[in-house]
TrEMBL record:
It comes from Enterobacter agglomerans (Erwinia herbicola). One of its GO terms (molecular function) is protein histidine kinase activity. SUPFAM superfamilies: ATPase domain of HSP90 chaperone/DNA topoisomerase II/histidine kinase (SSF55874), CheW-like (SSF50341). This is Chemotaxis protein CheA. It catalyses: ATP + protein L-histidine = ADP + protein N-phospho-L-histidine. Transmembrane segments: none annotated.
Length: 182
């Protein structure tokens, strides 16, 4: 799966540069977010072989959508190499679980050699939650207020450095670790 190398794309009759499309729209009480690419698509045979060797329930009449949903199984990965960001089998499982915890669901559609679309449906009520904006470097993120317990603005002298370059902040007699977001 994923976007092929420029060389492989040209051999497949595609332009050298891959396309990634992100869209969002309101659909009957839900927000629908779609992420699509024009890459290699999911490899049905490879996914089924990995699922079978991992002990996941598979059968020969599985639809393409059912096969695609196997990538969301805990620990599932078809990566041949493990890197810092792929191959460990934790990414898509976490995505699906977090979406379900928000009352939504995820769907996948893929055509081998043509690309993949991942569709996330979330209840519209999530789109109108109160939020707190947080700036990290040049990016702004919105945190749902129901997930924010407290907001502090410590002064530099209140930060206590630890070995290894980490810092803690003392708040009401308790030391809290600081996590850098950049």
């Amino acid at each position: 799966h994923s976007i092929e190398t420029p060389e492989k794309r040209l051999v497949a009759g595609k332009v050298a540069t891959g396309n990634l499309t992100l869209s969002a729209e309101h659909q009957g009480g839900n927000i629908c977010i779609e992420v699509s690419d024009d890459g290699a698509g999911l490899n049905r045979e490879r996914i089924l072989a990995k699922a079978l060797s991992s002990g996941l329930p598979v059968h020969e009449n599985m639809s393409d959508e059912e096969v695609g949903m196997l990538i969301f199984a805990p620990g599932f990965s078809t990566a041949e190499q493990v890197t810092d960001v792929s191959g460990r089998g934790v990414g898509m499982d976490v995505v699906k679980r977090n979406i379900q915890e928000m009352g939504g669901h995820v769907e996948i559609a893929s055509k081998q050699g043509k690309g993949t679309t991942i569709r996330i449906l979330l209840p519209l009520t999530l789109a109108i939650l109160d939020g707190m904006s947080v700036r990290v470097a040049d990016e702004v993120f919105i945190l749902p207020l129901n997930a924010v317990m407290e907001s502090l603005q410590p002064r530099a002298e209140e930060l206590k450095p630890l070995a290894g370059g980490e810092c803690v902040l003392e708040v009401r007699g308790e030391y809290l670790p600081l996590v850098e977001l950049w």
